[in-house]
Amino acid sequence: MGEKKFYVKESGIHGKGLFASCDISANEIIGSIKYNPTEEDGPYVLWIEDQGILVDCDLKYINHDASPNACYCDDLNVIALKDIKANDEITHDYGEEWIE
Question: What is the pLDDT of residue 10?
């Protein structure tokens, strides 16, 4: 699969964050979510068509931003929405109902 395109460190947004370890092009796959199914909501849980997905890998550290540079896809890949420079934080828009 090659070298990981991200690393985890403290974030200026919230707690830990996910950062690009290299330049990532728009539409490039950043990684695939490793998970465990869950019926309970909580930190690091995504909901895809009424199925709870407890993210069990470093991709769980993607923080919220209303102008994101990445998104979660239904096939459990995380895709770059635009070019991301090395060391930039990788972010996703969790929606209006998201509460920190």
Answer: 98
Which residues does 14 contact at the CB level (< 8 Å), separation at least 6? 63, 64, 100
Tell me how far apart the alpha carbons of residues 45 and 42 are, in angstroms, rounded to a whole number. Answer: 6
Q: Any long-range contacts for 3-8 (C-beta under 8 Å, 24+ apart)?
A: 4/31, 5/30, 5/31, 6/30, 6/31, 6/58, 6/59, 6/90, 7/58, 8/58, 8/61
Q: What pLDDT score was predicted for residue 1?
A: 47
Q: Please give the model's pTM, rounded to 2 decimal places.
A: 0.89
Q: How far apart are CA 39 and CA 69, in angstroms?
A: 29
Divide the 100 residues of the chain into consecutive groups of 10 and give the mean pLDDT of each group: 86 96 98 95 88 94 95 93 98 73
**Domains contained in the chain, CATH given:** 6-30+57-92 (2.170.270.10)
